[in-house]
Amino acid sequence: MTAILQIEFEQDKWERLEQAAQEHGFESPTAYVRSLVDEAIGEEWEEDEDIDVATSLREALRDVREGRVYPIEKLWEMVDSDND
User: Fold this and answer.
1) CA 66: distance to chain centroid?
2) Per residue in 44-78, pLDDT tens?
3) Chain-centroid distance, C-alpha 29
4) Rounded to the nearest 5°, which phi and psi values hold at 7?
């Protein structure tokens, strides 16, 4: 079963989301948001778990706005610098 979630963004937030998607290597903002949701709720979650998807999505988007999401290349640089 598939469900549709429609989210409205103000123009400036949409532009920031487009930019973040591109910076993180996603082909579209939609793909990026799906990735954030997968990360927020985990790809393997039990249906009986009490998960608030809206809250998880808000937290993921807040992380993006506040710069707490990094491209994989940046993460590898951080890992390598910790080993020095």
Assistant:
1) 12
2) 555 545 667 788 888 888 887 887 777 777 777 77
3) 10
4) -125, 130
List the Cα angle 37/64/51 in 5-degree steps.
Answer: 30
What are the CA-CA distances from residue 38 to residues 11, 12, 75 (Å)? 25, 24, 19
HSE of 2 in the Cβ direction (CA atoms, 13 Å)? 1
In this prediction, residue 78 carries a pLDDT of 73
pLDDT reported for residue 83 = 62
Sign for the pseudo-dihedral over CA of 23, 28, 32, 35: negative
User: Could you give the maximum distance between any two Cα atoms of the chain, in Å?
Assistant: 48
pTM value is: 0.50
Token code pair at residue 46: 């039990």
Burial of 41 (0-12, 13-18, 19+ CB in 10 A): middle
